[in-house]
Amino acid sequence: METPILDGVLFILARIVEFINIGMIILFAVRGVPARYIYAVLLVTVISLLFFVVSLLFRSEDAIKFSFLVTVGAFVVMILIARHALNKASVDIIIPEASRCPVCSAFVKQEGAIALHVGHSYLFFDQEQHLRKFLESPEDYAKIRRMEIKSDMIGKAYVYKNGVWLELKNT
C-alpha cells in the first residue's frame, strides 16, 4: 500500500477510535459513573488528539503512523478504564434502611457493609469478621433468624468499601 493511502486509512481509523472514546465519555455520564473515570477517559482522548495535531505539524513519514499507534494505545487504556468503571457502576445493591447484620443484629451502614448473595436475595453484614463468622456455620444463623439458608445457596459477596466482588469458597 502506498504511503499516502496508508496515511489516509490510519487517519480515518484514528478518528473513529477517538469518536468511540468520546462516546464512552457520554455513556459514563449517562450511567452515573464516578467523575474520576470520565476525566481519565477524557485525558486519554485529549492526549491522543494532541499527538494527532503534533503529527500534522511535523509532516514526516512516520508521524501519522506514530500518532495512530498512540491513538490505539489510548483506546486500549480507555477499554481498561471502561471495564473497571462499568463493573463498579453496575452494582445496584442498595442496603435497605432497616437492614441488620445477621450475626450481631446491628444496623448496617454503607461504609463498612458487605452484601452476601444468598439464593435470590442478599444478606448485609456490618463488618467482614461477621461475614466470616456467618460463613463458618450459615445453617446455625439461619435457625436463629428463622431463615432458610443452606451452604449451596451462598454466592459472591460485595464489599462496599473496596467496591469489589469476592468469590467465596463453600467449605
Please provide a written account of the structure.
This protein has 171 residues and is α+β, with helices and mostly antiparallel strands. The chain has 5 helices and 4 strands. It has a 4-stranded antiparallel β-sheet. Strand 1 and strand 2 form a beta hairpin. Helix 1 packs antiparallel against helix 2 and helix 2 packs antiparallel against helix 3. It starts with a helix and ends in a 5-residue tail after the last strand. The model has no long low-confidence stretch (mean pLDDT 82).
In short:
The chain has helices at 3-31, 35-58, 63-89, 128-136, 138-144; strands at 114-118, 121-125, 154-159, 164-166. It has 171 residues and is of the alpha+beta class.
List the keywords.
171 residues; alpha+beta; 4-stranded antiparallel beta sheet; 5 helices; rod-shaped
Outline the secondary-structure elements.
Blueprint: H1 3-31, H2 35-58, H3 63-89, E1 114-118, E2 121-125, H4 128-136, H5 138-144, E3 154-159, E4 164-166
Antiparallel strand pairs: 1-2, 1-3, 3-4
Arithmetic mean of pLDDT:
82
**Biggest sheet layout:** 4 strands, antiparallel
Q: Beta fraction of the residues?
A: 5-15%
Euclidean distance between termini CA atoms: 61 Å
Radius of gyration: 24 Å
Count of helices? 5
User: What is the N-to-C succession of helices and strands?
Assistant: HHHEEHHEE
Using the alpha-carbon principal axes, give the shape.
Answer: rod-shaped
Low-confidence stretches: none
Q: How many beta strands in the DSSP annotation?
A: 4
- Spatially, the strands of the biggest sheet line up as 2-1-3-4
User: Which range best describes the helical content: under 10%, 10-25%, 25-40%, 40-55%, 55-70% or over 70%?
Assistant: 55-70%
- The assigned structural class equals alpha+beta
